[in-house]
């Protein structure tokens, strides 16, 4: 295995010449997300609902969470789905820029560390359904989860959670209530992986929270002790 390392470095050097790293935020050469764009990513600042992370006048549970508590303990996102954060998510999802997963996961890891309250034994990524993943070739959430798994030294349950059936793409499926109906029962978790575990659920973007809630519900049904969710960005 050791013998492959220099070859891999040569491979990377060739790639850098053919496809030089360019910042998805400002277009500068040298990195996929340059230092100044990293520093200026739009932060999802408090006060927010401590459960779903929706902006609030004060740090207290929002009306929706008081009415019906989500299946996750809490969801957190360091950034708003705007500006360079949006560009990064798009590039990771649609432009096959998988190298972006590394800096994005580093930013997520640092944020989770700062938050402090989140404890986990196991990472799980929000799955794409089979056909969409085959078309795209990879799942962007799994790329982030893989990097986080490496950074934390925590196991990633690659097959811990699966789509039960095809659900229409979120972009095409209308209002929040319709999306919610769509994703309920869309997931199934594997008890062999998750039973008794404190799960950290990873996705790229949180929109309504319905997907994370449905995933968390499936994980809890399969015996997960608790579920926290972390996404790179969120839509306020
Ligand atoms: Zn930049
Ligand atoms: Zn809430």
Summarize the structure.
The chain is built from 10 helices and 7 strands.
Describe, in plain words, how this protein is organized in 3D.
With 236 residues, the protein is of the alpha/beta class. Helices cover 41% and strands 14% of the residues. The chain is built from ten helices and seven strands. The strands form two sheets. Strands 1, 2, 3, 6 and 7 form a five-stranded parallel beta sheet that branches. The protein has a two-stranded antiparallel sheet with strand order 4-5. β6, α10 and β7 form a beta-alpha-beta unit. α5 crosses α7. It is globular, with a radius of gyration of 18 Å. One zinc ion binds next to α2. One zinc ion (ZN) binds next to α3.
Distance between the termini: 46 Å
User: How many β-strands, per DSSP?
Assistant: 7
Largest sheet: 5 strands, parallel
Q: Can you give the mean pLDDT?
A: 87
Derived from helix and strand composition plus strand pairing, the structural class reads: alpha/beta
Instruction: Please report the number of helical segments.
Output: 10
**Which radius of gyration do the C-alpha atoms yield?**
18 Å
Beta-strand percent range: 5-15%
Q: What ranges have pLDDT less than 50 throughout 5 or more consecutive residues?
A: none
Fraction of residues in H or I helices: 40-55%
Shape: globular
Order of helices and strands: HHHEEHHEHHEHEHEHE
What ligand molecules are bound, each kind once? zinc ion
Overview features:
14% strand; globular; binds zinc ion
């Amino acid at each position: 295995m050791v013998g492959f390392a220099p070859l891999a470095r040569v491979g990377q050097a060739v790639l850098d010449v053919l496809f030089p790293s360019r910042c998805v935020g400002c277009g500068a050469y040298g990195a996929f997300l340059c230092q100044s764009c990293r520093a200026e990513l739009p932060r999802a600042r408090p006060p927010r609902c401590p459960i779903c992370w929706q902006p609030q006048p004060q740090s207290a549970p929002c009306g929706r969470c008081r009415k019906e508590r989500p299946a996750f303990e809490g969801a957190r996102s360091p950034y708003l789905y705007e500006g360079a954060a949006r560009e990064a998510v798009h590039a990771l999802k649609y432009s096959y820029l998988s190298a972006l997963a590394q800096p994005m996961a580093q930013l997520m890891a640092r944020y989770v560390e700062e938050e402090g309250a989140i404890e986990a034994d196991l990472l799980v990524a929000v799955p794409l359904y089979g056909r969409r993943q085959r078309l795209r070739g990879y799942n962007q959430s799994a790329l982030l989860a893989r990097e986080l798994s490496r950074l934390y030294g925590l196991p990633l349950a690659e097959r811990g959670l699966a789509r039960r059936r095809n659900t229409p793409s979120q972009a095409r499926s209308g209002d929040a209530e319709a999306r919610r109906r769509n994703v309920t029962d869309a997931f199934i978790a594997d008890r062999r992986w998750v039973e008794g575990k404190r799960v950290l659920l990873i996705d790229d973007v949180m929109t309504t929270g319905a997907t994370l809630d449905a995933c968390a519900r499936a994980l809890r049904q399969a015996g997960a002790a608790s579920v926290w969710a972390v996404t790179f960005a969120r839509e306020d």
